[in-house]
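Researcher: Here's the sequence for the chain we discussed earlier.
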Amino acid sequence: MLSNWLAAFLLLSSAAVPRADSVAPMTPEDVILSLDESVPVDAVTATLGLDDGVVLVVDYNLGGVGRVSVMLDTDAAGSGRGLITVREAPVVEVVLQDGAVASQAAEWSALAPSEVRAVAASLVQVWSEVELTAATQGAQDLKCTIAGGLAGAVAGVGVGAACWLLTKADLCVGTGVTITSNVGGYITDKCNGAQNK
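Model: Thanks. This is the structure I predict for it:
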């Protein structure tokens, strides 16, 4: 499903660098550890539709940063777009074609590195605050797996892009892949009604 993910991820080297702040330079290990640091997330809302594809919108307030949205809109074949916005400005866009990442772009220049780190951590942590269930007219497991995989890809690209922009290290590709898998599985479980997984 995500066969083109790694190739598309490498395009991030040309993405805009976040604005400077007083944060010391980070290593990939620092970024990975920071994903587990608690970030203040509240006012979480989520909608999920699985009728003719996948439509997922998760909005939340991220303390010290502002409103963050994760949006996914695909057709039944898995073609469409994923978008992460911060304060209504797009920071990551993922174009999906037949269930694979076809292209992606990241634009973090309006955010300080500390904000980029907080957004990345929130993309990993917000799912514990989200309740996702969907009326799917049968075949729920398959539709939820597809929704989880596609939404996980958007979150993984976002976290991987943040890591790359903060460190310029190849290890960030693996970080993005891991997040894709973890978030995808979490969304799939929640969609299928396993709210406590």
